[in-house]
Amino acid sequence: PIVQRFLAEFLGDHSSKVVKRHGTCFFQFVTDVNATGDLISADGSQNLIVIDPAKMPYDSNRRNTKMLKFSPGLLFPWAKRVIWQDAKLLSSSIGNKPSPHGLPSDYFLHFNRTVQRFGTCSSFMGLPHHKVSINTSPSVNLNAHCDTIFIAAKKRPTVSDSLDVLRTQCERYMEMHGNLTHQSSQVFAQSPLVDSAFIVYDMRSTLCQKFNGDLGCSWLDEIHCYSDRDQISFPHILATSGLNLSPDLNTPGQEFRDRVY
């Protein structure tokens, strides 16, 4: 089954289409701040999983959400395919539209076109070449993304829970991977930047279960030690893992496709 996560109560045209196609194997993590005790969403399409913030390890909801996002095997050990989807995609004017304008309306088809097609264990959205991601940079790279976050922080200080730590983190990664004679630095130089708002996990094999689990643990370790911005830590995690970007996507014109590993 496919597992999907929503945090928002908003259900639009997209949700009605996918429920008709896939049924109600959808899960929404909620904090139930109003103490309603509901276990099913108002329209009956989603199973609600109530999270007690007091029992989560961080004060920051952004950090706590990462633990849910990067732990598919722990949360849904019975699932063969897990798709994580941020609520912000549903609340946007672009995301809340079925493919090709936004989110998939057929999640099995999207699964087959990403991890199934390339024989990989996970797929992430590539960080878009957009001013909100890299400002005016001509290319998508970590340095440009870091600078863009600091620019955004002038108007929105909550963009990270520690801007000083974030700055140190960006500088550390650039220094660590500056020597392009090292294989890890060569991977880092490919700028494997992702947007973790939409993730496809293949959990059908023991190999992929371990891979996705190890990747999530490494990612969470870095987030625990440094900033809460997972886009910043991902290139470092990938570079030090011994992995490589799929050669099928490492070709001109493919820079902005989903990243599959």
Summarize the structure.
This protein is of the alpha/beta class. It has helices at residues 13-22, 61-69, 72-75, 87-91, 107-118, 131-134, 142-153, 163-176, 183-189, 206-225, 230-241; strands spanning 2-3, 5-6, 27-30, 47-50, 81-85, 122-126, 194-202, 259-260.
Give a written overview of the molecule.
The chain is of the alpha/beta class and 261 residues long. It has helices at 13-22, 61-69, 72-75, 87-91, 107-118, 131-134, 142-153, 163-176, 183-189, 206-225, 230-241; strands spanning 2-3, 5-6, 27-30, 47-50, 81-85, 122-126, 194-202, 259-260. Helix 7 runs antiparallel to helix 8 and helix 9 runs antiparallel to helix 11 (230-241). Residues 1-12 have low confidence and may be disordered.
Task: Offer a few descriptive terms.
three-stranded parallel beta sheet, globular, disordered N terminus, alpha/beta, 11 helices, five-stranded mixed beta sheet, 261 residues
Give the secondary structure arrangement, pairings included.
Blueprint lengths: L1 E2 L1 E2 L6 H10 L4 E4 L16 E4 L10 H9 L2 H4 L5 E5 L1 H5 L15 H12 L3 E5 L4 H4 L7 H12 L9 H14 L6 H7 L4 E9 L3 H20 L4 H12 L17 E2 L1
Parallel strand pairs: 1-5, 2-3, 3-4
Antiparallel strand pairs: 5-7, 6-7, 6-8
Strand coverage percent: 5-15%
Lateral strand order in the biggest sheet: 1-5-7-6-8
Determine the number of helices (DSSP H or I, runs of at least 4 residues): 11
Overall structural class, as computed from helix and strand content, comes to alpha/beta
Low-confidence runs: 1-12
Mean pLDDT, all residues: 82
Radius of gyration: 18 Å
Largest sheet: 5 strands, mixed
**End-to-end C-alpha gap:** 21 Å
Number of strands: 8
Shape: globular
